[in-house]
Specification:
It is built from 14 helices and eleven strands. It is of the alpha+beta class. Strands 6, 7, 8, 9 and 10 form a five-stranded antiparallel sheet that branches. It has a four-stranded antiparallel sheet with strand order 1-2-4-3. A hairpin with a 2-residue loop joins strand 1 and strand 2. The radius of gyration is 34 Å and the shape is elongated.
Length: 458
């Protein structure tokens, strides 16, 4: 009978020794030979009538190695289940010498593995953390801006002869040139739609009166700035406009005729008929904005929590073992180089740490994803795509869609992961005493942008 012993190599790093006796693997090897002789298709022999001796001669070596290694695998798995060993990754074979396995001289064999163990740790006291729940106050200006945006978004596009104000849409062909306005060989040529108000204020008056067919030259940095410049750079597929010049050809002038604030418009946006007057409409817009900013605030708080959990959880990990384990995780069974491992290790360590922390939170908060969670998720997703409000009464076509999605393994795996992650963060949020902190929309946006920059700088 096989024997398994373990010994401590270093903290959270163990060695597993497995001794396999001849009688542990020989019966299954003999059985494998018989099975093979039944199936083998060898010229000169009827199927199923090939002598075992010939099969042993032809395939014995590889079948012998297979059966011994299968038995070792079985013993490793039995040990892990019986001991309920909390390991990280899979046990790694140490000095695996296949050459010692000789079909003509069956013997007792010894194999060794190394294992990385999960550390015991405590979550930080989230209730004691100094966290803020930012509350963005929805101002009359924000409501007005949103009303105007909706009027424009659902408006009708017209094609006036000439550019008349900041709201005109210009269809432009951007052609990259040198400073003198001569097209550059291999430079960018791209069509783009740009609002007049995307140009710098100093340029806008020069655009009034222009019509389709007109051409003008600009230095990028003199024509555009701020967020608008970033959007246009993105569309052109370049990182910086510094020192770049373009010839702009105006191919079409457009203008959106904004919708009137009337009942037809209100009904189009809110079909259930509860919005009749402009006052109702503005109240509805306020409610939608409040919901949107409450959701942004929740995301921001959960983001703070993610950093607290990652930075404040004291967690030792067997780093030497993990680096060796990572080497075996290359694509197409190719081992990773030491350089690759060193480069990827900090990200891997951070992800592993977060995975252990979320497991601990799920255990502490008894968090599970149920069938009802999955059905609700599929329903909300469907109705969200269709712009419909979730009603308590499930219609047949909605139920049929949900039933179909719940049978899709890939969809269920993806949805489960998203629900699980959200439940984990909601549980963490329920553990904190975050101080409600009023903030303006601009300050909130600036704070998030500063955080993004800090992230990219690391």
């Amino acid at each position: 009978m096989a024997t398994v012993t373990q010994q401590e190599v270093a903290p959270l790093h163990k060695k597993l020794n497995i001794t396999i006796k001849k009688e542990d693997y020989l019966p299954s090897f003999e059985k494998a030979i018989k099975e093979h002789s039944k199936k083998a298709n060898i010229p000169g022999f009827r199927k199923g009538m090939v002598p075992s001796g010939l099969i042993k001669k032809m395939y014995g070596s590889s079948l012998f190695v297979d059966e011994v290694l299968k038995k070792v695998d079985q013993e490793v798995n039995n040990f892990l289940q019986t001991e309920k060993a909390e390991i990280i990754g899979q046990p790694l074979p140490l000095d695996l010498n296949i050459g010692q396995l000789d079909v003509n001289k069956p013997a007792d064999y010894e194999f060794s593995f190394e294992m990385g163990m999960r550390p015991a740790f405590e979550l930080p006291d989230l209730g004691a953390q100094n966290l803020k729940r930012f509350q963005v106050d929805v101002t009359p200006e924000m409501i007005e801006e949103e009303v105007e945006r909706l009027r424009g978004r659902y408006g009708n596009m017209t094609e006036p002869e000439t550019v008349s104000d900041d709201e005109n849409v210009l269809n432009l062909t951007f052609t990259e040139t040198d400073a003198a306005g001569n097209p550059i060989e291999g430079g960018i040529t791209k069509d783009n739609s740009v609002l007049v108000k995307y140009f710098r204020e100093s340029i806008r008056p020069t655009l009034i009166g222009k019509k389709a067919g007109d051409v003008f030259n600009v230095a990028f940095d003199e024509a555009f700035e701020g967020a608008e410049a970033q959007w246009i750079l993105q569309d052109l597929g370049i990182d910086s406009g510094s020192g770049r010049h373009f010839r702009l050809e105006l191919t079409k002038v457009g203008l959106v005729e904004k919708r009137d604030l009337d009942e037809a418009f209100f009904t189009q946006l809110f079909p259930n008929g509860e919005v009749k007057t402009e006052e109702d409409f503005r109240n509805k817009v306020r409610g939608e904005l409040e919901k949107q900013w409450a959701s942004e605030s929740k995301n921001q708080l959960q983001h703070q929590l993610y950093h607290v959990l990652l930075n404040e959880t004291r967690l030792d990990l067997p780093q030497d073992f993990l680096k060796r384990w990572m080497k075996t995780q290359g694509e197409n069974n190719q081992a990773k180089t030491d350089e690759q491992v060193e480069q990827e290790f900090p990200t891997f360590l951070s992800q592993l740490k977060w995975s252990l922390i979320t497991d601990k939170m799920a255990e502490t908060g008894d968090i599970k994803v149920t069938q009802d969670d999955l059905r609700q998720f599929a329903k909300e997703q469907l109705l969200g795509y269709m712009g419909m409000a979730a009603s308590d009464e499930e219609q047949d076509w909605v139920r049929d869609y949900i039933d179909r999605m719940i049978k899709d393994r890939k969809y269920v795996d993806d949805a489960s992961q998203r629900i699980y992650s959200q439940k984990i963060m909601d549980w963490a949020e329920s553990q904190v005493n975050a101080a409600a902190t009023p903030i303006s929309k601009d300050e909130f946006v600036r704070m998030n942008e500063a955080h993004q920059h800090a992230h990219h700088a690391h």
